[in-house]
Amino acid sequence: MARGTKSKTSEGGVSATMIEPRATGMASAKPLGPRQVGDTVIFAASYPNAKIIQIAGDFNNWQPEKNPMKKTDNDTWEARIPLKKGVYNYRFVVDGKWQQDPHNSMTKPNPYGEMNSVIKVE
Q: What is the pLDDT of residues 11-44, one digit of tens each?
């Protein structure tokens, strides 16, 4: 599949359009996925064709407009969110489409038959 293209996925009879992230390699200067720095979690993802990316999760009452990501260099999007110790479920909203974080392997099923991404803050 070409980088940054859209694909159709089907899970449990439900079809959804998902914007594919760019493949990562040695050329990427910034790490992708969530990482904790002090009391802040930095969420970073690569979506070269996205117009807007937001994060919705336990930490913002699943309201994506509270945490928009900002586009940085090399088509990377980033958000810095201060979080207390705990385990949080979240999803990205990429151009209006909800999806799990493709750069985070920690997931768990949600009530809608899809997967939430999970981060543990220590």
A: 333 333 334 454 444 444 678 999 999 999 999 9
Long-range contacts of 72-75 (CB under 8 A, 24+ apart): 72/30, 73/29, 73/30, 74/28, 74/29, 74/30, 74/46, 75/4, 75/22, 75/46, 75/47, 75/48
Q: What is the pTM of this model?
A: 0.76
**Domain 15-20+30-121: top CATH class:** mainly beta
Domain boundaries, the chain: 15-20+30-121
Residue pLDDT, tens place only, 69-101: 999 977 899 999 999 999 999 999 999 999 999
Q: Which amino acid is at 63?
A: Q
User: How buried is residue 39: exposed, middle or buried, by Cβ count under 10 Å (0-12/13-18/19+)?
Assistant: exposed
Q: Map tokens 């904790």 to a residue.
A: 36
Tell how far CA 61 is from the center of its chain: 16
